[in-house]
Amino acid sequence: MRRILIVLLLAILLLPAPHKNKPELLKAGPLLVTVRPLSLNSADPADRSAGALDYLGGWQLSSPHHGFGGISSLLVDEQDQVLALSDSGTLMGFALTPNPKNRHSFIAPLPVRPQDKDQPWWAWDSEAIAYDAVTSRYWVGFEMLQRICRYAPGFSRVEACRTWPEIEAWPETGSIESMARLPDGRFLVIAEMGMMADGSHDSLLFAADPAEESTPRPTRLRYVAPRGYRPTDAVALDDRHILVLNRRVTLRDLFTATLALIELPDRPKPGDRLIARTLARLAPPLLADNFEGLAVTREHGQTIVWIASDDNHEFFQRTLLLKFALRGAPGSS
């Protein structure tokens, strides 16, 4: 009986979050977030490392607001202010520590174009976010809509959206899951379930903004994930090196995650393989959950890695936010 229950649980966890679990469209408003510190290893609080990651802190997040949770991607600034994006088109902004200079915590839906207002609320399956600090613009990848949209500073409006035939060929519930913007303006988009014959993940390298009609067709690459894992988020360290967060669900461990590093070729060609080099693994007895969000900041010359979990708006899952220092990262001191 226990094995049957575990199999049923895995089926729930592996499927996209059901529509009934996702909060319907909400109005913008304030957000109260409760932060509870956690040890990386509850059985051994002195354990503070996982592979190349040194644990700086971790928190279980909760809020009385019904729209909170479902975090699928995030951005973090140098003041540890978090901008999280849920898998239902909801933005959540909050800070981990009080500071008079912090922006007010908020929750708000993503803006939509007039022509998209008839889309059902549950279709806004936003799974990836990218940001350009120079222009203060944002990009969001929508898995079910198979679309990438660009937003004006402050998410004040939608500036452009584009759907690519290469992405439309991916499964609707396993398409845009990871999107990284490189400092030189290129974008790498990795399919969660758009697989090649050799088991690698179809990946698209855009020479410029993927939301623009003038951007040329992307170069198709192949992401080779750690065995048994699927990519859930990605972030660029520089013009060549990209961190990729990967997830796996098994009967023995339930959720586990790996953080991997890939390197783009100097001159990428169609079919080039991006082979993941595992840097760290998060599995019991360490904190482990449905990790889907990945962000990077800099602190005292170190590369700081942030990892967040998606609770799927289920009572038996948690919203976790973990902070690590990455040893040996490109550009780290």
Number of helices: 2
Radius of gyration, taken over Cα atoms and rounded to an integer in Å: 19 Å
Strand content: over 45%
| Largest sheet entry | 6 strands, antiparallel
Number of strands: 24
List the domain count as a whole number.
Answer: 1
Give the second-level CATH assignment, the architecture. 5 Propeller
Here the CATH topology equals Tachylectin-2, Chain A
The helix/strand class is mainly beta
Q: Point out poorly predicted stretches.
A: 1-5
Secondary-structure element order, as H and E? Answer: HEEEEEEEEEEEEHEEEEEEEEEEEE
Note the overall shape.
globular
Fraction of residues in helices? Answer: under 10%
Domain Phytase-like: 67-313
InterPro entries: Phytase-like_dom, UCP031900
Protein name: Esterase-like activity of phytase family protein
Organism: Sphingobium agri
